[in-house]
Specification:
The complex is a heterodimer. Chain A is mainly β. Chain A is built from no helices and nine strands. The chains are: A mainly beta, B mainly beta.
C-alpha cells in the first residue's frame, strides 16, 4: 500500500489528452511538500519528467505538465504519442510520527490505444 | 554529465547481507547540498525509497527498513555503499541509486541503470 495513491492504469488514443492523479494526505502533499513525476519506459530506469510540481527538466516536451492542489497532484499529457506508453510515478516527501521519508505512488501504466 | 552505476551480487541467499555500490561521476558528494539515494523496485511493482546520504554525511532511512540498512559514502572514490541485512526473497528486485541535486529539491534528477538482485537459496 503506497502512501501516495495513483490509478493503476489510464489509456488514450494518439493525439488525445490524459491525466494521472496522485492523491496524498496532510503529512505529505498537503503539508506543502513538492511533487515530482517520473516516466519509466519498459525495462529502463525511471526518468525525471516533472519536478517541483510543475517544472520540466531540459529536454522534456511541453506536452507534459504538472499541477498540485491541496493534497493531490496531477500529471497531464497532451497530444498523446505511442512512445508515451510507460509507467508513471509520482513522488513526494512525508513527515509523520513514524518518521520522515521519501514516498512514491504505486505507479500508473499508460496505454496508448 | 552526471552518471551513476550500481554494482553488486546478482544472487544472495536468505539471511545473508547484501552490499551494493553506487559509483558516480559528474558531481562531487562533497558539494554543499548534494545527496545520493537508493530506491528499489520488486518485479512488476512500484518504486520504494530505501536510504539517502548527503554531502555532510547526514543519513536518512526508510522508517520501515531502517533497522536493516546502512548507507555510507567514500567521497574520494565517488562511491556510495548500501548494506541491507537479513535478506529475504521479498527483497528481490532492481536496486537503483540516484542523484539528489540539493537539500531543497526533494527529487532525484539522475538515476543509474539499476541492478537486479535475486534472493533465493
Amino acid at each position: 500500500q503506497s502512501v501516495l495513491t495513483q490509478p493503476p492504469s489510464v489509456s488514450g488514443a494518439p493525439g488525445q489528452r490524459v491525466t494521472i492523479s496522485c492523491t496524498g494526505s496532510s503529512s505529505n502533499i498537503g503539508a506543502g511538500y513538492d511533487v515530482h513525476w517520473y516516466q519509466q519506459l519498459p525495462g529502463t530506469a525511471p526518468k525525471l519528467l516533472i519536478y517541483g510540481n510543475s517544472n520540466r527538466p531540459s529536454g522534456v516536451p511541453d506536452r507534459f505538465s504538472g499541477s498540485k492542489s491541496g493534497t493531490s497532484a496531477s500529471l497531464a499529457i497532451t497530444g498523446l504519442q505511442a512512445e508515451d506508453e510507460a509507467d508513471y510515478y509520482c513522488q513526494s516527501y512525508d513527515s509523520s510520527l513514524s518518521g520522515s521519508s521519501v514516498v512514491f505512488g504505486g505507479g500508473t501504466k499508460l496505454t496508448v490505444l | 554529465q552526471i552518471t551513476l552505476k550500481e554494482s553488486g551480487p546478482t544472487l544472495v541467499k536468505p539471511t545473508q547481507t547484501l552490499t551494493l555500490t553506487c559509483t558516480f561521476s559528474g558531481f562531487s558528494l562533497s558539494t554543499f547540498g548534494v545527496g545520493v539515494g537508493w530506491i528499489r523496485q520488486p518485479p512488476g511493482k512500484a518504486l520504494e525509497w530505501l536510504a539517502l546520504i548527503y554531502w555532510d554525511d547526514d543519513k536518512r532511512y526508510s522508517p520501515t527498513l531502517k533497522n536493516r540498512l546502512t548507507i555510507t559514502k567514500d567521497t574520494s572514490k565517488n562511491q556510495v555503499v548500501l548494506t541491507m541485512t537479513n535478506m529475504d526473497p521479498v527483497d528481490t528486485g532492481t536496486y537503483y541509486c540516484a542523484h539528489r541535486p540539493n537539500m531543497v529539491a526533494t527529487t532525484f534528477d539522475y538515476w543509474g541503470q539499476g541492478t537486479l538482485v535475486t534472493v533465493s537459496s
